[in-house]
Design brief:
The protein is 44% helix and 23% strand. It is an alpha+beta fold. Among the domains are: 1-41, no CATH class; 158-241, Endonuclease I-creI (Roll). The strands form two sheets. The protein has a four-stranded antiparallel beta sheet, sandwiched between helices. Strands 5-6-8-7 form a four-stranded antiparallel beta sheet. Strand 1 (72-76) and strand 2 (82-89) form a beta hairpin. The two termini are 35 Å apart.
């Protein structure tokens, strides 16, 4: 018997495209066992699994959608079906766990595992129906094709805008502290102020972000591929609902 972490580690090696033989040699686990774990994770290609329908949790989906648009992708599996992969930097272990939780909340029956890369973790889950939940999936990079929300997705984002913004910031954004100096009473003093940045080369994804900010009353300023939120009241709103990564 093998524990869950061992199974996840082995399946993560297989997900890299390595052969069952090489993974078996490295881990000491038989090809038969690895194959059986794959079969438990992935439906047989001869069986058509029913579409599970809309997300099980709309708020978690809004957050996961933000993560996907920032640092996510969907890739086909050789046996059919698809992998949803979200890249999460090692520097933010809390983000890795929140990403895993969001996938589980959106699709409670699916397995989720973490594949360690150099400097980041690829949070991964297999399903035949990920493209139905993320119709923005397509060939090429996101900034090279049109990205628009389906009406049902927009309805969810409208109902949970802060979760969507949080997902975008946790993927392609940050909260930083800027500083400047001012002359006060003849003495130059340092003045610090926080701001949020969101950086994405897709005009469409930046527009989805700023349209949502507009609806929330958050003031923003564009800087090429960056969107800055720096006004005190708007930063306070972001702090209350988004906060820094952790």
């Amino acid at each position: 018997m093998y524990d869950v972490s061992t199974r996840e580690r082995v399946l993560a090696l297989v997900a890299q495209g390595r052969s069952l033989n090489s993974v078996s040699r490295e881990t000491g686990i038989s090809r038969y066992a690895i194959r059986s774990w794959q079969d438990q994770l992935e439906p047989s290609p001869r069986m058509s699994a029913p579409d599970p329908g809309p997300p099980a949790d709309d708020a978690a989906y809004a957050y996961l959608l933000g993560l996907y648009l920032g640092d996510g992708c969907i890739s086909p599996h050789r046996r059919g079906g698809f992998y949803l992969r979200i890249a999460c930097a090692d520097a933010w272990p809390g983000l890795i766990e929140r990403c895993r939780e969001a996938i589980t909340q959106v699709r409670p029956t699916l397995s989720v595992y973490a594949l360690q890369k150099e400097g980041y973790v690829m949070v991964t889950s297999y399903s035949r129906h990920w493209p139905a939940l993320f119709p923005q999936h397509g060939p090429g990079k996101k900034h090279q094709r049109r990205i628009a929300l389906e009406p049902w997705q927009q309805t969810i984002v409208d109902a949970h805008p802060w979760e969507f913004v949080r997902g975008l910031i946790h993927s392609d954004g940050c909260r930083i502290t800027n500083w400047t100096t001012r002359l006060v009473g003849g003495e130059r003093k340092r003045y610090e102020y926080p701001r949020y940045f969101f950086t994405n080369v897709s005009d469409d994804i930046r527009r989805l972000y700023t349209d949502t900010l507009d609806g929330l009353g958050v003031e923003w300023t564009p800087h090429r591929y960056n969107i800055s939120v720096a006004r005190k009241a708007s930063v306070a709103l972001m702090d209350a609902h988004v906060g820094p990564k952790c």
